[in-house]
Design goal:
Its EC number is 3.1.3.104. By secondary structure, the protein is an alpha/beta fold. It has ten helices and 15 strands. It folds into two domains: 150 residues, HAD superfamily/HAD-like (Rossmann fold); 106 residues, Hypothetical Protein, Haloacid Dehalogenase-like Hydrolase, Chain: A, domain 2 (2-Layer Sandwich).
């Protein structure tokens, strides 16, 4: 049952939180791609109490390096929507589920034919092969703190971790859902960029890169149970971690679907929603 933070505090539940998982865009970072001083202070406080803090995001790990350095989110977390499990503190890649070459070729053929916005990710970086929706790419790369590599995807030989596809809902409302039906062997994890609410994005990853498997891996890695985990998110792709955690927190800017699977709905990201929860629960 989803309740407010105030209602949660009035209940008898006293969570023993040992691991905090944070989605990035729309959760840690506001529409301008930055976090607040309040969030930084709250995360530092729980870290000092011994709580492990980690990223659980659709971003590749190279696009969260500034969060390791500035917020100390260096514990083992989940990246590329489950396709990577990486430990920043030791630079260790625990798990990786690259897309099969055959799937990548078929997907690219569809994306090129439909003239959709798409990006390709490997461990080396973010690739684009044509100038589509430059306003989206510019904001995205600014928020990721990385520069795209312009190169034909046919000449990229490193394993592909994920493809990111975006559509303007005013022009192609069902394009991603149609694409997903054509590729049932892939996982489509949906999310929105807070800066562009009329766009819908899907991270396309290997079918074995499930969030449930990644969550179970983290529990075993840390030697804890789900009741020891608090997970924050705002997007559809965050719903599994929110629902599996002992305390699942939906941001106030999340959709109703995300809020419905959470234990707590906090304030929006621009009102320090993370800090308000951490400061009273831990």
């Amino acid at each position: 049952m989803t309740i407010s933070l105030e209602q949660f505090l009035l209940s008898d539940q006293k969570p023993d939180i040992r691991l905090a998982l944070f989605d990035v865009d729309g959760t840690l970072l506001n529409v301008d791609g930055n976090y607040t001083a309040g969030v930084q202070k709250s995360i530092a406080r729980v870290q000092a109490l011994g709580v492990k803090t980690a990223v659980a995001s659709g971003r590749p790990y190279f696009a969260t390096r500034f969060l390791w350095q500035e917020l100390g989110l260096v514990d083992t977390g989940v990246f590329c929507t489950g396709a990577q499990i990486f430990e920043p503190s030791t630079n260790t890649l625990h798990k990786a589920h690259p897309l099969p070459d055959s799937s990548v070729k078929k997907l690219l053929a569809q994306l090129r034919e439909q003239h959709l916005y798409y990006e390709l990710y490997t461990d080396a970086g973010l690739y684009i092969e044509r100038d589509v929706a430059p306003e989206i790419l510019g904001v995205h790369c600014k928020h990721l703190r990385t520069q795209p590599i312009m190169q034909s995807f046919d000449t990229v030989h490193d394993p592909v971790i994920k493809l990111l596809v975006g559509v303007d809902l005013d022009k192609s409302a069902n394009a991603l859902q149609v694409l997903e039906q054509r590729f049932p062997d892939c996982i489509f994890a949906y999310a929105k960029l807070p800066a562009y609410p009329r766009w819908l994005f899907a991270s396309i990853i290997h079918h074995s890169a499930s969030k449930r498997a990644a969550f179970d891996y983290l529990l075993a890695h840390y030697g804890i149970s789900a009741s020891n985990v608090i997970s924050f998110g705002d997007a559809q792709s965050d719903m599994e971690f929110i629902s599996m955690a002992g305390v699942g927190v939906a941001m106030g800017n999340a959709s109703d679907a995300v809020k419905n699977v959470a234990n707590i709905v906090t304030s929006p990201v621009w009102e320090d929603g993370i800090a308000k929860v951490l400061d009273v629960l831990i």
